[in-house]
Amino acid sequence: MKKLSARRRHPLAALVVLLLALAATGGLYAAFAPAEKAQADTSAQSLAIDEGKKLFAVGCSSCHGLNGQGTSDGPSLVGVGSAAVDFQVGTGRMPAQQPGAQVPRKKVIYSQSEIDQLAAFVASLGPGPVVPKPEQYNPSTDPAKNAADISKGGELFRTNCAQCHNFAGQGGALTNGKYAPSLEGVDPKHIYEAMQTGPQNMPSFPDTTMPEEQKRQIVAFVRHTENDEPNPGGLTLGSLGPVTEGLFGWIFGLGVLIVVAIWVAAHTTKAKKS
């Protein structure tokens, strides 16, 4: 005991304890900290941003400016987030062919990896909505849960979306040459991103306004309407509504009846003369 007490009083005892503590802390940190993975992720992200900046300079800067600050020909992209880039470029709307009231969907000219790089660069300009993960927009694998999502999604769609996109998602005309596009064949991820970012004439629905679960429910309803919705009345005529269906009936249905009546009358007259 006297020897141990003497060692504790040694002038270098505190220094030895401190060095042992530092060595133990360093060893634990080296063992458990994902330093290499974090460094690799950072390097990959930096590379994506650099490549995206090159693509942006060639294909986007003429309208949006070299640093995405915007010009008289295109808005600023600072703060729009990666989701806006993934939607606009992933649906072929950007780069735009020509200015107009609304930029239509067209063939995509960039690969998905290039779109990811452009999105990484624009996201580095300022925080904004991020590209959603598959579990955020894909329907549930549980049939009961999916059916509930479709039912609730139908209510949400009719409340928030049908005024412009039509009750069946077939789109509709707006003012001054603008229009709400059809949702037929649109990737579920892009539907979700459109609600996140509010492209062109569409209002945005951030999570504070429409939670993630409600967005997924709307996506489930749109996909169900396109793929699985039965049509007990027969031909849907594009599901454009009663006005279009009534007009079709008057023009084509009544027109056919008039032609048949004229044909019958003409042949009856010929029969009487003969």
TrEMBL record:
<feature type="domain" description="Cytochrome c">
    <location>
        <begin position="148"/>
        <end position="226"/>
    </location>
</feature>
<keyword id="KW-1133">Transmembrane helix</keyword>
<keyword id="KW-1278">Translocase</keyword>
<dbReference type="Pfam" id="PF00034">
    <property type="entry name" value="Cytochrom_C"/>
</dbReference>
<keyword id="KW-0479">Metal-binding</keyword>
<feature type="transmembrane region" description="Helical">
    <location>
        <begin position="247"/>
        <end position="266"/>
    </location>
</feature>
<keyword id="KW-0732">Signal</keyword>
<dbReference type="InterPro" id="IPR009152">
    <property type="entry name" value="bc1_cytC-su"/>
</dbReference>
<feature type="signal peptide">
    <location>
        <begin position="1"/>
        <end position="30"/>
    </location>
</feature>
<keyword id="KW-0349">Heme</keyword>
<keyword id="KW-0813">Transport</keyword>
<dbReference type="InterPro" id="IPR006311">
    <property type="entry name" value="TAT_signal"/>
</dbReference>
<keyword id="KW-0408">Iron</keyword>
<keyword id="KW-0812">Transmembrane</keyword>
<keyword id="KW-0249">Electron transport</keyword>
<protein>
    <recommendedName>
        <fullName>Cytochrome bc1 complex cytochrome c subunit</fullName>
        <ecNumber>7.1.1.8</ecNumber>
    </recommendedName>
</protein>
<feature type="domain" description="Cytochrome c">
    <location>
        <begin position="47"/>
        <end position="126"/>
    </location>
</feature>
<dbReference type="InterPro" id="IPR036909">
    <property type="entry name" value="Cyt_c-like_dom_sf"/>
</dbReference>
<dbReference type="InterPro" id="IPR009056">
    <property type="entry name" value="Cyt_c-like_dom"/>
</dbReference>
<dbReference type="Pfam" id="PF13442">
    <property type="entry name" value="Cytochrome_CBB3"/>
</dbReference>
<keyword id="KW-0472">Membrane</keyword>
<keyword id="KW-1003">Cell membrane</keyword>
<comment type="subunit">
    <text>The cytochrome bc1 complex is composed of a cytochrome b (QcrB), the Rieske iron-sulfur protein (QcrA) and a diheme cytochrome c (QcrC) subunit.</text>
</comment>
<dbReference type="InterPro" id="IPR050597">
    <property type="entry name" value="Cytochrome_c_Oxidase_Subunit"/>
</dbReference>
<keyword id="KW-0677">Repeat</keyword>
<keyword id="KW-0679">Respiratory chain</keyword>
